[in-house]
Amino acid sequence: MLDGNLLVDAHVHAARLPTLKVRRAQWVLEKGPNVDILALYDDTGTLDPERFDAFLESEGVDCALLLAEYSPRVTGIQPIEDLVPLARQNPVRIRLVANVNPHVHYPIREELDRQLDLGAVAMKLHPVHGNFPANARELYPAYAACEARGVPVVVHCGTSFFPGATNRFADPAYLEDVVRDFPRLTVLLAHGGRGWWYEAAAFMTQLHENVWIEISGLPPHRLPEYFARFDLERLARKWVFGTDWPGSPGIRANAEAVGSLGLPAETLARVLAGNAIDLYGLGQTAARPAAGDAGTTTRRRY
Predict the structure, then answer these.
(1) Could you give the percent of the chain with pLDDT greater than 70?
(2) What CA–CA distance (Å, rounded) separates 136 from 75?
(3) Which of 99, 94, 97 is nearest to 77 (CA)?
(4) What does pLDDT average to over the chain?
(5) Cβ–Cβ contacts within 10 Å for residue 255, how many?
(6) Quick one: fold of 8-301?
(7) Is 59 within 8 Å of 250 (Cβ atoms)?
(8) Which of 165, 224, 176, 173 is nearest to 196 (CA)?
(9) Cα separation of 31 and 16, whole Å?
(10) Is 271:263 a contact under the CB 8 Å cutoff?
(11) Strand pairing partners for 12?
(12) Which residues contact 202 (CB under 8 A, 6 or more apart)?
């Protein structure tokens, strides 16, 4: 928790270092996270489940959503199987997000179902790294499956500095077809249109009930600037907190910065956790005993 608020980080990259295609310094966007991330890894370049869980606890994170990624031309392959051991370490705190790429997966619905069956609570699409538009008809079976199962879809909507990225596919306008054709589908715009499309992303949340902004990868103190043409408090009601860790100074630091924006307490609580709880269906689960509380079990509302 953070100052009495539950904290859900909806956008965490828990990559295995040997499978990264980009330089490690570039992967963290050279922002200097406030923790030595290498200390969380074992000798094989894999995140140690216990260390990673303890790190999330130290950052005040009640629940973190870890993203798989299948983008061989940009960041490499981060298969969901690599994330499963982390989720098993603490199924309350650590959840998984599926990822599909129409250039890699066929039939795409079969692959999506496979990842959801491994415990994923959402589907992530990365048009910029995968080199496809979000309205590609090859994706429609996956959208249909998510709508039918009540699974939210997270779409990267923001520029990427990684070599090989196709930034034109970050335009939220591609999703207009999707939200029209799947009116009961929940869509989250990751990075909120970062770069060229802040206003387009914000307008879409006002126009469509089921479209939300996930504020990962955005410096919180600059959010009023990025969305200057909108009523910030009203817009924030449709924000979901995320950091893009490790490409951020820190999870706690970013959450505290969001807290300093002066949002009403109820809205802040929704941004930091409440919206994610509802959208991802995190539900009510049994919390694992914290360090020093062995033998006790509490109920934590997610």
Answers:
(1) 90
(2) 21
(3) 99
(4) 90
(5) 26
(6) TIM Barrel (3.20.20)
(7) yes
(8) 173
(9) 19
(10) yes
(11) 66, 245
(12) 192, 193, 213, 227, 229, 230, 235
End-to-end CA distance of the chain: 11
Identify whether the C-beta of residue 125 lies closer than 8 Å to the C-beta of residue 119: no
The 10s digit of each residue's pLDDT in 22-51 is: 776 666 645 555 568 889 999 999 999 999
* Both tokens assigned to 78: 């981060």
pLDDT band at 299 (very low <50, low <70, confident <90, very high): very low
Give the domain ranges of the chain.
8-301
Per residue in 187-244, pLDDT (tens digit) is: 999 999 999 999 999 999 999 999 999 999 999 999 999 999 999 999 999 999 999 9
Instruction: Give the Cα-Cα-Cα angle 135, 140, 146 (nearest 5 degrees).
Output: 115
Task: Name the amino acid, one letter, at 198.
Answer: Y
Tokens 């992530």: give the residue. 124
Please say whether the dihedral angle defined by the alpha carbons of residues 88, 89, 90 and 94, taken in this order, is positive or negative: negative
Residue 299: count of CB within 10 angstroms of its CB: 8
Tell me the CA distances in angstroms from 248 to 12, 24, 72, 170, 237, one per residue in order.
10, 14, 23, 20, 23
DSSP string for the chain = -BTTB--EEEEE----GGG--S-HHHHTTT---SS-GGGGB-TTS-B-HHHHHHHHHHTT-SEEEEEPEEETTTTEEE-GGGTHHHHHH-TTTEEEEEE--TTT-SSHHHHHHHHHHTTEEEEEE-HHHHT--TT-GGGHHHHHHHHHHT--EEEEEE---STT--GGGG-GGGHHHHHHH-TT--EEEEEEEETT-HHHHHHHHHH-TTEEEE-TTS-GGGHHHHTTTS-HHHHHTTEE----BTSSS-HHHHHHHHHTT---HHHHHIIIIIHHHHHTT--EEEEPPPTT-TT--EEEE-
The pTM (predicted TM-score) of the whole model is 0.91
Mean pLDDT of the region 109-122: 97
